[in-house]
Amino acid sequence: MSESDALRDLYRAYIDCLNRRAWPELGRHVHDDVRYNGECVGLPGYRAMLEHDVRDIPDLRFDIAFVMAEPPHIACRLRFDVTPAGRFMGVAVDGRRIAFNENVFYRFEAGRIVEVWSVIDKAAIEAQLA
Question: Would you place residue 13 in the very low, low, confident or very high pLDDT band (cuts 50, 70, 90)?
Answer without folding.
Answer: very high
